[in-house]
Amino acid sequence: MKSLFIMGTPASGKTAVSVGLALKFQQEGYRVSYFKPVGITGGKSRDEDEDAILMKSVLKMDHSLKDIVPYTVGPSYLSGNRNCISLQEITSTYKRISEGSDIVIVGGASFPHIMGCVGLDSITLAREFKSTAVFLIHIENDFSLDNAIFVNSYLECRGIPIAGNIFNNVPRPLLAKTEGVYQAVIEEKGYRSLGVIPHRSEIASPTVAEYFEALGGEVLSGKENMDRLVEDVLVGAMTIESALGYLRRAPNKAVITGGDRADIALAALETSTSALILTGGLYPDVKVIARADEREVPVLLVHYDTYTTLEKCAEISKRILPTDRKSIELAQENIDKHVDWKGILKTIK
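RE: above sequence
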């Protein structure tokens, strides 16, 4: 039995890549199972880990959700009762999952360092499981590549085999630079690029409903269109003169602005906007709601300040549901077209 540990950061697409690789390996005749040692609650309304529900369905696993994800934790896990699951317990559960499998796909937490205080971070677990690592790079700018090189270096120092890196969900404006510059730089550093997967909104962009679930608050308008995709997030904190050109450049966006900025809200509603997110708990002018109703645009009222709202939005990623056959097929298609999956198989063999 071999295991492949999928690591990355929020919005790097760990779930989609896990689904795509698992199905591809199954197609090649391997018995594949899935394990996620540490699930992150993050204030979600449901107890079950959504990755576990998805992978159990996709791979037709007989194991319970509790076995697939033995431990879930929130961002304040050191407060109050500090007793948590032990490394031995997680390893024991991992061995149960792996029985009868040729390959186990192991899903990492939101960041590789999560749970490092108690020795349950992804790097420590990968070493314990004798896994081979794949790191997913979510490119936003040059600093994203710095982070990837740092993580690869640390994995190497800890003696963990690295199959390589996948540049995933790469935005169109950064695609040429990723293929021509970023891949070359990471390979110059001695780390392998397994491929570049372009951003596809159908599989990578969260819906307005997913933003609402993460942010809470109230839906003031557009409840019937909560399934709209959000391809970009903009903050409207400038003058109205500066805002107009800025808002027109981004399609299918969510615009975050204060509830008292009716001018920005109304300007956003005249462009391709998937949702308005009004911060500070301030109810907007009635003109904003009236125009949003006319344009059928969801308006979310949240009680965080603009900065906190933006931070929370940065960690929201697309969920793939077991019933979402199109996204599942696209996940496998991305692996077929853009990833050196044969190279991964050779590495873990």
